[in-house]
Write a structure and sequence with these properties.
The chain has 811 residues and is of the alpha+beta class. It has 5 domains: 173 residues, no CATH class; 88 residues, Sandwich (Immunoglobulin-like); 101 residues, Immunoglobulins (Immunoglobulin-like), CATH 2.60.40; 101 residues, Immunoglobulins (Immunoglobulin-like, Sandwich), CATH 2.60.40.10; 235 residues, Four Helix Bundle (Hemerythrin (Met), subunit A) (Up-down Bundle). Helices cover 53% and strands 21% of the residues. It contains 15 helices and 27 strands. The strands form 6 sheets. Strands 2-9-8-4-5 form a 5-stranded mixed beta sheet, with no helix packed on it. β6 and β7 form a beta hairpin. About 1% of the residues have low confidence.
Length: 811
C-alpha cells in the first residue's frame, strides 16, 4: 500500500471540515442578521405605538440582548470553535458519513478505510491484507471531489430572506425617520422616562435636579407645542400643586425646605401626564455650635475666657484662641484666611478644633464641607487684636524756694497691663545715670514722687545736664516698651555766672535798702511836722488820730519790709558761700544777718505794740508821748538801715574784690598754660590757639569791667577803702595779649609764647599787688575795730567805778 494515498484522503477530509464550518459561520451571520433586524422592526414599531413603560422597555431590551447572544453562540460561536478544533469539533469519521451521503459512488468506502486503519491487534498476514484493501479503496475514492460536498451557494436563499427586513427598515427610515429613531432611542435608553407625544412638551430649564437638604429648590420650565396649557400642575407626595405661570409658556414652582429625594411629574387639567422626574437631595454640611477659649498672655493677668456661639471679638495681642466647632453631615471644615487655606483638626465625627495665636486684626471665614458640597454652611467673624499700648507718664517739677538746686517731682504713670521699671534718667557729660524709683508693678495707674539735690551729682560748674523720667511696661509679646517724660535741662552756673547772679541780687538788695531808708526819712520828717501841728491844738480831731494811725502803720510796714529783706540777704550769702569761702567775709555776712534780725526783733515788736495801745487810748495829753516814741523808733530804724546798708556795701566790695583777684589768678594760670602750648604747637593748631587767646582776652576784659565796678562801689562808701585798679598793669596786659595774637597770625609761635608768658606774669603780679592791698585794708579795719573795742571797755570800767562809788556813799 502506498501511504501517500491514505494521507491524501486525510488532507481532503480536513479541508472538507474547514469548509463545512466556514459555511456554518456564514449561515450563522445570515441567521443573526435576519432574526435581529426582524425582531428590531417588530419591537420598534410596537414601542412607537405602544409607548411602553420603563419596566417593559427594560424587559424588551434585555430580551433582545438574550436572543442576540443565543443566536450568536449557536450559529456563530459554536462553528468558530469547530473551525479551531476546540471542544465538540467534527472528526474524520463524522465527515466521512456526511461525504458518503453526498456522493453515491463512495457509499461506505471512506468510512471503511478509516475503520480498517484503526485495527491494530492483527497478525502480520492479516495486517498486510488490510493495508492492501485500504490502498485499493483509496484509489477508488480519489477521483471524487470531496470539497464540493459543501456548497456556499446554498446560502443565497437565506440572503433573500434577509433582504426583506432590510428593505422594510430602509423604506420606513426614508418615509418616516421618527418611526425608527424615536423608539430606538427610547429602547436604548430603557431606564429613562419618555413622555408620550402630546399637544405640548415639557422642557426643564434647570441645569440639574439636585439640591441640598433643608434648602429651597426653584424648578423652572418651558412648555412648547401647538396647544399650550393655561394651567400646569406638579404632582408629588400623592398631591398635585399648581405651578406659577410666569409668562405664556414659562412656569415655575418652589419646593420648600426639602429634606429627602422627591419623585414628581407634571399634569394638566386634561389627560396630559409627563414622564417622572426626580430631585436628588444631598445632605448639607452645617455648623451646629461654636465655643471659643481665649487664653491671654500671662503677663496681662487676664483670666481664660470661655465664649459660646461667638461673634466678632476683641482680644489682647498674643492671645491663644481655641475654637471647638460642632457640625452636622460634615466631613471637613476649612478656614479661608488671607491667601491661605487651613484645614481644621477633626477630633471625632462632626467635631473640629482650630487653634491660632493673634497678632493682628483678622477676618476668619469658615466653611463646612462634605463629598457633595465643597463649601456648605459658612460663617465669618472678625478678631480684633488689641495692641499693648505704650505706657503713659506725666511729670511736674518744682524748685525749692531757698535751695535752687533742690528739685521736687510729682508724677503719674499709667499702662494697660503693668510696669517693669521706673527711673529718673540723667544725662551728664556723655554718661547716662539711671535712678530707680519705687513703684507697684501691677497697679495700672499710680502716682510717684521724687526729690533730688542736684549738687549731689558732682557736676562741674558751668555744665548742663538733661534729665527725664522713663517708665517701661511689661509687654510680653513685643518686648517691654518705654515712654519718657519731656526732657528738661538743668544748668550748673559757672563761677562767673554765680558771681553775676549774686551781684544782681546784691544790687537789688541795695536798691531795696536805699528805698526803705528814703521812705523812713519821709516818715520821720512827717512825724516831726505833725508834732508841731498839734502843739497849739486844744484837742485832737478824728483826722489827727487817723493820720497818727497811718504813720504808725507805715512805720510797721517798713519794719516788716526791712525784716523781709533778710531773706534776700540770706540768699545772697548762700550764693556767696558757693563762690567765696573767706572766713573774714563769712563773719561779716553773719554780722549783717544779725543786724537784719534786730530790725524786727521781739523788743522792737513789743515797742510797736505799746505805741499802738497808747494810740488807742490817746488824748491831747499823751499825743506828744506817742509821737516821741514813734520818732525814736524811726530814728533807731534809720540808724540800723544806714548801718546795714554801709556794712552790706563794704561786704559786697570785699567779696567782689577777692573774687576778682581769684579770677585774675586763674586767668594767669590759663595764660601761662597757653604760652607753653603755643611754644610746642604745630602749624595746623594755629586757629585753635587764636581762639583760646581771644577767649582769655575776653575774660580779662570782664575782669577789667569788674574792677571798674569795684572802683565805683568803693567810692560809694562813707569811708572808702584804699583801692587801686592797676590801670598800668591792665594796659600792659592788653598790649602783651594783642602782640601775642599778632605773632600767632604771623606764625611766630616763639614770639607769641613769649608775649603770652609776659602777660601771665603781669596778671600774677597784678593779682598779688591787689591781694596785698586788700590784706592791708583788712588789717587797718581790724585795728580800728580793736580801738573801738578798747574804747568800749574803758567806758565800761569807768561806769563800774561810778556805780561802786554810788553804792559806798551814804544815803
Amino acid at each position: 500500500m502506498t501511504p501517500s494515498n491514505y494521507h491524501s484522503i486525510l488532507q481532503k477530509l480536513d479541508a472538507f471540515i474547514n469548509k463545512y464550518y466556514i459555511n456554518l459561520i456564514i449561515k450563522g451571520f445570515l441567521y443573526l442578521l435576519l432574526i435581529s433586524i426582524s425582531l428590531f422592526i417588530v419591537l420598534a414599531i410596537s414601542e412607537f405605538f405602544a409607548h411602553f413603560t420603563v419596566s417593559v422597555r427594560t424587559l424588551i431590551f434585555y430580551s433582545f440582548v438574550v436572543v442576540f447572544v443565543v443566536v450568536f453562540v449557536i450559529f456563530i460561536l459554536r462553528p468558530v470553535f469547530g473551525l479551531l478544533r476546540l471542544s465538540g469539533a467534527m472528526n474524520h469519521q463524522q465527515a466521512s458519513i456526511i461525504i458518503g451521503k453526498h456522493f453515491a459512488g463512495i457509499d461506505d468506502k471512506l468510512s471503511n478505510i478509516l475503520q480498517l486503519q484503526e485495527l491494530d491487534h492483527l497478525s502480520k498476514e492479516q495486517h498486510q491484507l488490510i493495508l492492501a484493501s485500504i490502498d485499493q479503496k483509496s484509489k477508488e475514492i480519489s477521483p471524487f471531489p470531496i470539497l464540493k460536498a459543501v456548497n456556499f451557494r446554498y446560502n443565497y436563499k437565506y440572503l433573500k430572506f434577509l433582504l426583506v427586513p432590510i428593505l422594510v427598515l430602509l423604506i420606513t427610515w426614508i418615509s418616516n425617520p421618527n418611526l425608527v429613531s424615536e423608539p430606538s432611542t427610547r429602547l436604548l435608553n430603557y431606564s429613562e422616562e419618555f413622555e408620550k407625544p402630546q399637544a405640548f412638551s415639557i422642557h426643564i430649564l434647570n441645569k440639574d435636579l439636585v439640591c441640598y437638604r433643608k434648602d429651597d429648590f426653584k424648578l423652572d420650565l418651558e412648555v412648547q407645542g401647538h396647544e399650550l396649557p393655561e394651567k400646569l400642575f406638579i404632582y408629588y407626595y400623592n398631591t398635585r400643586f399648581l405651578m406659577n405661570k410666569n409668562s405664556g409658556n414659562s412656569f415655575s414652582y418652589t419646593f420648600k425646605n426639602i429634606r429627602q429625594n422627591i419623585d414628581f411629574h407634571f399634569v394638566d387639567q386634561g389627560d396630559f401626564k409627563s414622564k417622572d422626574y426626580n430631585i436628588i437631595t444631598y445632605p448639607k454640611a452645617q455648623f451646629q455650635s461654636f465655643e471659643l477659649f481665649i487664653t491671654a498672655p500671662k503677663y496681662t493677668g487676664i483670666p481664660t475666657k470661655h465664649i459660646k456661639n461667638i461673634g466678632d471679638i476683641s482680644v489682647a495681642e498674643g492671645s491663644q484662641l481655641k475654637w471647638v466647632i460642632a457640625t452636622a453631615d460634615c466631613d471637613q471644615v476649612f478656614s479661608s484666611l488671607a491667601d491661605s487655606m487651613i484645614i481644621l483638626d477633626q477630633v471625632k465625627k462632626d467635631l473640629f478644633h482650630f487653634y491660632d495665636t493673634i497678632h493682628k486684626n483678622l477676618v476668619y471665614q469658615l466653611y463646612a464641607s462634605n463629598k457633595y458640597m465643597h463649601k456648605g454652611d459658612s460663617i465669618s467673624w472678625m478678631v480684633q487684636s488689641i495692641k499693648d499700648e505704650f505706657p503713659e507718664i506725666r511729670v511736674e517739677s518744682m524748685k525749692d524756694s531757698i535751695h535752687k538746686n533742690w528739685l521736687y517731682f510729682t508724677g503719674f504713670i499709667d499702662d494697660d497691663y503693668g510696669f517693669t521699671s521706673l527711673n529718673m534718667v540723667i544725662e551728664k557729660e556723655g554718661e547716662i545715670i539711671y535712678m530707680p524709683l519705687p513703684f507697684s508693678k501691677n497697679t495700672l495707674a499710680q502716682p510717684f514722687y521724687h526729690y533730688i539735690d542736684m549738687d549731689e551729682l558732682q557736676v562741674e560748674k558751668g555744665s548742663d545736664i538733661a534729665y527725664y523720667f522713663q517708665v517701661v511696661d511689661n509687654d510680653g509679646v513685643n518686648g517691654p516698651k518705654a515712654s519718657r517724660s519731656q526732657k528738661d535741662f538743668f544748668h550748673f552756673n559757672s563761677q562767673l555766672e554765680m558771681m553775676e547772679e549774686r551781684n544782681l541780687a546784691a544790687d537789688s538788695l541795695k536798691d531795696e535798702l536805699k528805698e526803705s531808708l528814703e521812705e523812713l526819712k519821709s516818715i520821720h520828717q512827717e512825724i516831726k511836722e505833725f508834732k508841731k501841728e498839734i502843739v497849739n491844738k486844744d484837742m485832737l480831731s478824728w483826722d489827727d488820730k487817723k493820720k497818727m494811725e497811718e504813720l504808725l502803720e507805715r512805720q510797721q510796714e517798713l519794719h516788716k519790709k526791712v525784716a523781709d529783706l533778710n531773706k534776700l540777704n540770706e540768699n545772697i550769702n548762700e550764693k556767696s558761700q558757693d563762690i567765696n569761702q573767706n572766713e573774714r567775709i563769712l563773719d561779716k555776712q553773719e554780722q549783717l544777718e544779725e543786724l537784719f534780725d534786730q530790725v524786727m526783733d521781739e523788743e522792737t515788736k513789743q515797742k510797736m505794740e505799746e505805741i499802738r495801745k497808747m494810740l488807742e487810748e490817746m488824748n491831747k495829753e499823751n499825743a506828744q508821748d506817742v509821737l516821741e516814741q514813734m520818732e525814736m523808733t524811726a530814728e533807731e530804724l534809720e540808724e540800723q538801715l544806714d548801718r546795714n546798708l554801709e556794712l552790706f556795701k563794704q561786704l559786697e566790695f570785699e567779696m567782689r574784690l577777692e573774687e576778682s583777684i581769684e579770677e585774675l589768678k586763674k586767668l594767669a594760670d590759663k595764660q601761662d598754660s597757653l604760652a607753653k602750648a603755643t611754644l610746642e604747637s604745630k602749624p595746623e593748631q594755629k586757629e585753635q590757639l587764636l581762639k583760646e587767646q581771644d577767649s582769655i582776652s575776653k575774660d580779662f576784659e570782664k575782669i577789667k569791667e569788674e574792677l571798674d565796678k569795684l572802683d565805683s562801689l568803693n567810692k560809694d562808701l562813707e569811708d572808702p577803702n584804699e583801692f587801686d585798679k592797676k590801670e598800668e598793669n591792665q594796659q600792659a596786659i592788653d598790649s602783651l595779649q594783642k602782640e601775642s595774637k599778632e605773632a600767632l597770625e604771623k606764625d611766630d609761635t616763639d614770639e607769641a609764647s613769649e608775649k603770652q608768658q609776659d602777660a601771665a606774669e603781669k596778671m600774677e603780679e597784678m593779682a598779688e599787688e591787689m591781694q596785698a592791698q586788700m590784706d592791708a585794708n583788712a588789717a587797718e579795719e581790724m585795728g580800728e575795730d580793736m580801738d573801738a573795742l578798747r574804747e568800749i571797755l574803758d567806758h565800761l570800767i569807768s561806769l563800774s567805778f561810778m556805780q561802786e562809788s554810788l553804792m559806798d556813799s551814804p544815803v
